[in-house]
Amino acid sequence: MKRLMDFFSGTVFVELKGTSPERFFNVCRSRKIPLYEIGTRVTEKGTVYVAKMKVKDYIRVKHVARKAHCIPYIRKRIGLPFFVKKHRRRIVFFAGGIYFFWMMWLLSRYVWDISVTGGFVHTEEELLSYLKGTGIVCGMRCEDVDCTDIERKLRIDYPDIGWVSAELRGTKLFLRVAETDMPIKKEEAQTPVHLVATADGMVEQLVCRTGTPLVKEGDVVKKGDILVSGVISVVGDNEVEVNRYGVAAEADIILKTVKNYSNSFSGKKVERNYTGKTKNGYTLLYGNKKIFSHMPSHSYANYAIITEDAVLSLHKHFPLPFRIQKTTISEYVPVVVTYTKEEAEHLAELALNRYISYLEQHRTTVLSVEHVTVVEKDTVKTEGKLLLLTEAWEQVPVQEDEWRLQNSDEYSGNNDGTSGGA
User: Fold this and answer.
1) Do 390 and 257 meet the contact criterion of CB atoms below 8 Å apart?
2) How many C-beta atoms surround the C-beta of residue 304 within 10 A?
3) Dihedral sign from CA coordinates of 198, 201, 207, 208
4) What is the pLDDT at residue 107?
5) Residue 176 near residue 117 (C-beta atoms within 8 A)
6) What is the pLDDT of residue 30?
7) How far apart are CA 110 and CA 137, in angstroms?
8) Which of 56, 38, 46, 44 has its CA nearest to residue 19?
9) Are 256 and 241 a contacting pair, CB within 8 Å?
10) Are the C-beta atoms of residues 279 and 296 closer than 8 Å to each other?
11) Cβ proximity of 65 and 71 under 8 Å
């Protein structure tokens, strides 16, 4: 701290020349003028004394030097006052430097970038849009960011996100999520419903919780068959049905079904043969506003545009609100190429694997796959069958006449409630 204060006030190294340097030191001590780093230095004219003192004290020693018949020559100047005096003609440069550091301090108080990682079902764009709806956007003050509140809201609004972490480093907000493979809860019916098969198959598993099961494991069913009825019968003595009422049937049902697979695509593709002719354009942006843009003109008939975006930053955790975009326009010549048999079969296999992955993401187990790929001149066709374990059922409302019994009059014998007689 003392060195810093000496730098701002300024210090000088003096060399004493005279007949009584000892008296000079004694008088300075009596008048409480501090001297530092007192020593001697050998020169061609003999040994001389050197010392260090503050600028304000150097002004006070004029009378002391006259009384001691010594002359304190300044040999070295250190400190801010001498630096400013030496560069006084560059005041605009130093003012710009001060303004630069002030701007960096000001920009460091805001969030300029939000990073979202870990999402699969919920994309980065979706989560950024959600954060924007809650007021978390680029350009907000860092002190207004409540990471704990962000984590709490995400866990409430996205039940399938099992873990979330929000962390603010510098001017960048890091959001990390981990999704859980939670089953989607089916919407509970409020009115009486049947559970009806949506495909032909065999019942692999049936666990009934509400309703009357009409099939059992191992039974073969067809599309439209009622698997679990939403009508429950009340049986009295002598096995006589005395009442019926409707309920919302509920059960876990897995059917083993066969699904036909068919896919086709063109046997030709268009390749781009680039000529090597390119033109570059540059854009400087502040947030989403363009500050400067230069886009070159061109006369290419076929061209591809590639844009590279870079965020200006002082540190990996200190991005700035400025971005530079480089746009490259490249000319190419389109060429139609026919797939080879190996390439066509490989693309057909990739398409089939994507479809299987889609089924597995929707709680379907693929037991086996049988398919054939035919490569023709202009078309590649794939036909096959997939053996699946899936929840192939849906809810169908129960009609009132299926469960409501008509009241009968045992004395009159009429079912309409009227009395008999002529």
Assistant:
1) yes
2) 13
3) positive
4) 85
5) yes
6) 82
7) 10
8) 46
9) no
10) yes
11) yes
Sign of the four-CA dihedral 48, 54, 56, 60: negative
Q: What amino acid is encoded at 112 in this protein?
A: W
Nearest to 55 by CA among 97, 6, 110: 6
Which class for 66: exposed (0-12), middle (13-18), buried (19 or more C-beta within 10 A)? Answer: exposed
At 25, the amino acid letter reads F
Question: Can you tell me the distance from the alpha carbon of 372 to that of 379, in angstroms, rounded to the nearest whole number?
Answer: 14
Structure tokens at 253: 């049902």
Enter the pTM of the model. 0.53
Q: Are strands 113-117 and 172-179 parallel, antiparallel or unpaired?
A: parallel
Write the pLDDT tens digit of every residue in 203-215.
999 999 999 999 9
Asked whether 276 and 290 are in contact (CB, 8 A), the reply is no
pLDDT at 284: 92
Q: What CA–CA distance (Å, rounded) separates 290 from 323?
A: 9
Reduced 3-state DSSP string for the chain: CHHHHHHHHCEEEEEEEECCHHHHHHHHHHCCCCCEEEEEEEECCEEEEEEEEEHHHHHHHHHHHHHCCEEEEEEEEECHHHHHHHCHHHHHHHHHHHHHHHHHHHHCCECCEEEEECCCCCCHHHHHHHHHHCCCCCCCEHHHCCHHHHHHHHHHHCCCEEEEEEEEECCEEEEEEEECCCCCCCCCCCCCEEEEECCCEEEEEEEEEECEECCCCCCEECCCCEEEECEEEEECHHHCEEEEEECECEEEEEEEEEEEEEEEEECEEEEEEEEEEEEEEEEEEECCEEEEEECCCCCCCCEEEEEEEEEEEEECCEEEEEEEEEEEEEEEEEEEEECCHHHHHHHHHHHHHHHHHHHHHCCCEEEEEEEEEEECCCEEEEEEEEEEEECCEEEEECCHHHHCCCCCCCCCCCCCCCCCCC
Asked whether 197 and 178 are in contact (CB, 8 A), the reply is no
Task: Provide the pLDDT for residue 413.
Answer: 45
Distance CA 327, CA 295 (A): 8
Which segments in the chain show pLDDT lower than 50? Answer: 408-422
| Residue keyed to tokens 């990996």 | 316
What pLDDT was estimated at residue 366? 93
Q: How many CB atoms lie within 10 A of CB 254?
A: 22
How many whole angstroms separate alpha carbon 221 and alpha carbon 217? Answer: 11
